[in-house]
Amino acid sequence: MIDKGAVLPLFYLPPVAYFSTIKNLRPDVVIEREEHFPKQTYRNRANIYSPDGVLSLTVPVIKGSKMHTKVKDVKISYDFNWQRLHWMSLETCYRRSAYFEYYEDDFAPFYEKKFEYLFDYNEQLLQMILKFIKLPLELKYTETYEARYPQLEDLRDAMSAKKEYDLQQKPYFQVFEERNGFIKNLSIADLLFSQGPQTINYL
């Protein structure tokens, strides 16, 4: 058992606070993969900055993937072409950003290839983003579900898509900030496409 550190869920294009947490606590970060899949969380949604403000992108999961399916067993639904919708949204929102073109060839396959499991999809996205922001982290995973982790900070429910996370965050340039001002704690994609290689310094 790790003596310090934190247990974190695996998110889709996680918010900035997620990476700030990893940076502060690495290498002692453990990813939860045995929990039951909770609905309406960042596990399958991300918030980006659209011309109209915050836009939530949700990865649909196969019905039945509700409270009694382990998160590692949740399957992605392709009943409609959500990948095309997400990619078009990312292009619309970030084509004018400084670094979108720099990264787009690496992100594009995630919106073309069909992944069976949400966990695998999120994991490969996370590993790619960690590489881009030069934040080395050997991913460790829970082996069993534990209600409590006495020796780890339990952050499984700390970042919710339904309530604002208390993050002290200094503004950086956002494409549509002249319309709605600076929006905190959006997906790491917002920061990465704006700051590029400087993302790690920002964090």
In short:
With 203 residues, this protein is of the alpha/beta class. It has helices spanning 16-25, 82-94, 100-107, 118-132, 177-180, 188-195, 199-202; strands at 6-8, 29-31, 45-50, 53-58, 140-141, 153-154.
Name a few traits of the molecule.
203 residues; globular; 6 strands; 11% strand; alpha/beta; 4-stranded parallel sheet; single chain
3D structure, described in words:
The chain is α/β, with parallel strands linked by helices and 203 residues long. The strands form two sheets. A four-stranded parallel sheet has the order 5-2-1-6, with no helix packed on it. Strands 3-4 form a two-stranded antiparallel ribbon. It has one domain (6-202). The chain is 31% helix and 11% strand. It has seven helices and six strands; from the N terminus they run E-H-E-E-E-H-H-H-E-E-H-H-H. Strand 1 (6-8), helix 1 and strand 2 (29-31) form a beta-alpha-beta unit. The mean pLDDT is 90.
Architecture blueprint of SSEs:
Blueprint: E1 6-8, H1 16-25, E2 29-31, E3 45-50, E4 53-58, H2 82-94, H3 100-107, H4 118-132, E5 140-141, E6 153-154, H5 177-180, H6 188-195, H7 199-202
Parallel strand pairs: 1-2, 1-6, 2-5
Antiparallel strand pairs: 3-4
